[in-house]
Specification:
The protein has 414 residues and is mainly beta. Helices cover 9% and strands 40% of the residues. It has one domain: Methylamine Dehydrogenase, Chain H.
């Protein structure tokens, strides 16, 4: 492999977990970080059973004013807390939620009133969600899912059906408040929060733990990944499996769709991130974290380069990955080497901010680190592809009555 210059990402800030006697014990891990869809809040699991929410704009401002470290743990810099009486409801304030058990997963959800519940009987509901509603779902160690009102801190729903750890949560992006949970009990469950949290469907197919799940931007497809090399795609209108994607050599632990829905990124313990075309199952790009690339036998074992997380930027051009070699990498979808890197020990998860300008990563000790993301002017080809692929899957693009050169121009190619 040819040598390439390693450009280091600029650190934006750090939110460090408070020191405690439990530092060396399990339960402090920050398994998940999340940004609200409107960019108003950032949330993370601070260890044990605590979730912390901070107003994102104020958090960024404090980084700029006071430096990068320990912002929310300094009494002199503490952001205003949210009152329990719900006063000034929609004004973002710092909030701490005790979830009652170890938190493994988080997801923000916001509703669009015009989007009706899929439930047939909609004559009466305990909750009626408005346009300004912002919810936080937390997946717990005991298999429960708790739904919170972000503005008031009140517990709205307690969803009980999983029998093992709820490893991941994702809301449908269409504002329907359809929530999907992935669990170590080998199932995915679909919940309708507009129907008071009714469980609509159980998706079965995984033969082992389910690690992660993600909706396509139009909410029509769900990807789920898990142990035993599993990558499944589901039709979320019919709740049926579309296909299983084959290629990884170890457990697959994270997945994310591109903003136009044309690409799917998956991260695996086999040291690789794959970029797929989810509409036909082709692998378009491989991002390796160990060179030379390991053999399938070595990749399927303890190779010291397990990739823990992957996230697609909102520009559709960049992907971030986090691995056990103490590195965060930023990739372009058309280059097989990182365009930027950053050091991080004991990283577990990562996510881009809503505007794509910042990457957040959580660690084993409950802390969060932030970096500025690569900022590059997209090509005309990329902008055209994104525009077309938001409304057309691969097959429809290939059937367009246009010259072959134009088809190539509009296609993501190997």
């Amino acid at each position: 492999m040819a040598a390439f210059p390693l450009i280091r990402s600029r650190t934006i800030g750090e939110l460090l977990a408070p020191a405690a006697p439990f530092d060396k014990k399990c339960g402090r891990e920050n398994w998940t970080v999340a940004f609200a869809p409107d960019g108003s809040y950032f949330a993370w699991s601070q260890g044990h059973r605590t979730v912390k929410l901070v107003p994102w704009s104020q958090c960024l401002q404090n980084f700029l004013l006071h430096g990068t470290k320990n912002v929310t743990n300094s009494s002199s810099l503490r952001l205003p807390r949210q009152n329990s009486d719900g006063g000034q409801k929609n004004k973002p304030r710092e909030h701490i939620i005790d979830c009652g058990d170890i938190v493994w997963s988080l997801a923000f959800g916001s509703s669009v009133p015009e989007k009706q519940s899929r439930c047939v009987n909609i004559e009466w509901h305990r909750f009626r969600f408005g346009q300004d509603q912002l919810l936080l779902a937390t997946g717990l160690n005991n298999g429960r899912i708790k739904i919170w009102d972000v503005y008031t801190g009140k517990l709205l729903l307690n969803l009980v059906d999983h029998t093992e750890v709820v490893r991941d949560l994702t809301f449908a992006p269409d504002g329907s408040l359809i929530l999907v949970s992935a669990s170590r009990d080998k199932t995915l469950r679909v919940w309708d929060l507009k129907d008071d949290g009714n469980m609509m469907k159980v998706l079965r197919g995984h033969q082992n733990w389910v690690y992660s799940c993600a909706f396509s931007p139009d909410s029509s497809i769900l990807c789920s990944v898990g142990a035993s090399k599993a990558v499944f795609l589901w039709n979320m209108d019919k709740y049926t499996m579309i296909r299983k994607l084959e290629g990884h050599h170890h457990d697959v632990v994270a997945c994310d769709f591109s903003p136009d829905g044309a690409l799917l990124a998956t991260a695996s313990y086999d040291t690789r991130v794959y970029i797929w075309d989810p509409h036909n199952g082709d692998i378009l790009m491989e991002f390796g974290h160990l060179f030379p690339p390991p053999t399938p036998i070595f990749a399927g074992g303890a190779n010291d380069r397990w990739v823990r997380s992957v996230s697609f930027s909102h520009d559709g051009l960049h992907v971030a990955s986090l691995a056990d070699d103490k590195m965060v990498r930023f990739w372009r979808i058309d280059e097989d080497y990182p365009v930027q890197v950053a050091p991080l020990s004991n990283g577990l998860c990562c996510a881009f901010s809503t505007d794509g300008s910042v990457l957040a990563a959580g660690t084993h000790d409950g802390s969060v680190y932030f970096w500025a993301t690569p900022r590059q002017v997209p090509s005309l080809q990329h902008l055209c592809r994104m525009s077309v692929r938001r409304v057309m899957p691969t097959q429809e693009v290939q059937e367009l009555p246009i010259p072959s050169k134009l088809l190539e121009f509009l296609s993501y190619r190997i």
